[in-house]
Design goal:
Keywords: Membrane, Plasmid, Transmembrane, Transmembrane helix. With 261 residues, the chain is α+β, with helices and mostly antiparallel strands. It folds into 2 domains: 102 residues, Immunoglobulin-like; 82 residues. The chain contains 4 helices and 8 strands; from the N terminus they run H-E-E-E-E-E-H-E-E-E-H-H. It has a 4-stranded antiparallel sheet. It has a 4-stranded antiparallel sheet with strand order 4-3-7-8, with no helix packed on it. Helix 3 runs antiparallel to helix 4. It starts with 12 loop residues before the first helix and ends with a helix.
């Protein structure tokens, strides 16, 4: 009886985890004067870290001498304005150099607490320092102008949004006014048509009344002639009958006209 072996590969979940992001350390030794060193250091991949700084004196033919250890955690407004994190990434330390040591050989070894990586920053040479002193004020003014332009752009964008809202409100108001004007014109036209129809009807009724009055006048004239010819008491009966009929018809017409108005 034979047995078959089955090989199973085991994978360590921890080994499959992603490797931590490496450091991206930048920095600079700004000055060494009056027995103090000034500079800054920042890790762009871990912007919240406060980097560890070890100040060393390099020597020819021997190991470097550690002069001081500090944290790059001091606040400098120019760093914040230059996009270096929250600006609290500067360092400053007092140095005591050995007798006869060259101050230009002082370096800063900057270490990331997240990854342990280190970067060494040497002091700029005299020519670079001179350029920094010459260009520094100009670069600062340029940075201030850029900040002012950014503020102006934000204000302009806010003003454009306000103008856009005002234009939309004005457009809606004009549309509403046009709609109201259209409704008023339609109502005015309806009232004008109704008034014209009423005037036409009134004109026709007045015309009919004038015809009736003319006929009545003719009838009364005829009655006057007949009364002149007949002087006896018996002749008044037909006349009174005609007058009563005519007066009744006239009163009926007047009552009907007044009722309709």
């Amino acid at each position: 009886m034979s047995a078959t072996a089955k090989i199973v590969e085991l994978h360590d979940p921890a080994a499959a985890a992603e490797a931590p992001q490496g450091a991206a350390i930048v920095g600079h030794i700004d000055a060494l004067q009056g027995g103090r060193v000034f500079g800054w250091g920042w890790d762009g991949n871990h912007p919240g870290d406060r980097l560890e700084v070890e100040l060393r004196l390099e020597r020819d033919g021997g190991p470097p001498v550690t002069l001081a250890r500090v944290l790059a955690d001091r606040l400098r407004p120019d760093l914040a304005g230059g996009g270096i994190g929250d600006g609290a990434h500067a360092f400053e330390a007092e140095l005591t150099l050995p007798e006869g040591a060259d101050p230009s050989r002082v370096v800063a070894v900057v270490r990331s607490p997240s990854t342990g990586e280190t970067v060494t920053f040497a002091q700029p040479n005299p020519e670079d320092q001179r350029l920094d002193r010459l260009l520094g004020p100009h670069l600062q003014r340029i940075g201030e102008r850029i900040d002012a332009l950014r503020r102006d752009q934000r204000q302009l964008a806010a003003a454009q949004q306000t103008i856009g809202r005002l234009l939309r409100d004005a457009g809606e108001g004009v549309t509403a006014l046009r709609s109201d004007a259209t409704r008023l014109e339609a109502a005015q036209a309806e009232r004008t048509e109704a008034l014209a129809a009423t005037l036409q009807e009134l004109t026709e009724r007045v015309g009919g009344l004038e015809v009736f009055l003319m006929r009545m006048d003719q009838t009364l004239r005829g009655l006057d002639g007949a009364s002149a010819e007949k002087t006896s008491g018996a002749g008044w009966s037909p006349l009174l009958t005609v007058l009563g009929s005519t007066a009744g018809a006239f009163i009926a017409v007047l009552v009907g006209w007044l009722t309709l108005h």
